[in-house]
Design brief:
By secondary structure, the protein is an alpha/beta fold. The protein has one domain: Vaccinia Virus protein VP39 (Rossmann fold, 3-Layer(aba) Sandwich). Helix content is 25%, strand content 31%. It has seven helices and twelve strands. The strands form two sheets. An eight-stranded mixed beta sheet has the order 1-11-12-10-9-2-3-4, sandwiched between helices. Strand 3, helix 3 and strand 4 form a beta-alpha-beta unit.
């Protein structure tokens, strides 16, 4: 199994994608990774999702000059409608949302980091298949899910778009970081059953942190 950091991710997966990939990034935060993909694939299209209003404004502002980036103030989910989102923050700045909000209630992760969840907000949600239908998107080449324990629910609710994927980069957890979340081995097994193979990751067989990231590609 190849060990890979996020810094090396884009060059590593270049050979698996076309020169003009359709990319969906969920949990885009302020657009740091969005901007990197926009520069790396200037002929591609990056669809960036961020449901927290204050953070979405940062994302939209930071990517406003990128003609190949489109931003959506939604949370990808397993239903289309609205849901409660647990907003994360650092203890020293409880009124400033940070990059760990989740549709699931935080649980064991609270003992692993000092991130707090001072409030919930109601956000708009949409399934990947509904979004694709509404926006006339017929395939996704690369899906990046940084959704704090909710990845498998999103994928299970999107059979049409899942079938078109060439590559998936997904955060996985090794503990019940959030209530009723699916953990790493369940996510991996389900993806393998769908014809996706894990080829790289940023953790070992004995992970030292409560989450990691894994790269899956469509089997030939």
């Amino acid at each position: 199994m190849i060990q890979i950091t996020k810094r090396d991710l884009l060059p590593f997966i270049r050979s698996y994608l076309p020169d003009n990939p359709v990319i969906v990034e969920a949990g885009s935060f302020d657009g740091h990774d969005t901007l990197a993909m926009s520069r790396f694939w200037p002929h591609g299209t990056i669809h960036a999702f961020e449901p927290v209003p204050e953070i979405f404004m940062q994302l939209a502002t930071n990517t406003t000059a990128c003609s190949n980036v489109r931003c959506y103030p939604y949370a990808l989910s397993n239903t289309t409608g609205t849901a409660s989102l647990y907003v994360s923050a650092k203890p020293e700045a409880p009124d400033q949302p940070c990059q760990a909000g989740s549709l699931l209630k935080p649980k064991e992760r609270l003992t692993w980091s000092n991130i707090v969840y001072p409030k919930t907000i109601t956000v708009h949600t949409i399934t990947l298949d509904d979004w694709a239908t509404h926006n006339a998107v017929d395939h996704i080449d690369f899906l990046w899910l940084d959704v704090q324990g909710f990845a498998l629910q999103i994928l299970q609710a999107a059979p049409q778009m899942l079938a078109t994927l060439k590559a998936l980069y997904v955060e996985v957890e090794f503990i019940e970081a959030y209530e009723q979340q699916h953990q790493y081995h369940d996510v991996r097994q389900w993806l393998e059953d769908q014809g996706l193979e894990m080829i790289a990751r940023d953790f070992t067989d004995a992970p030292t942190w409560f989450f990691g990231n894994a790269l899956f590609v469509r089997k030939n």
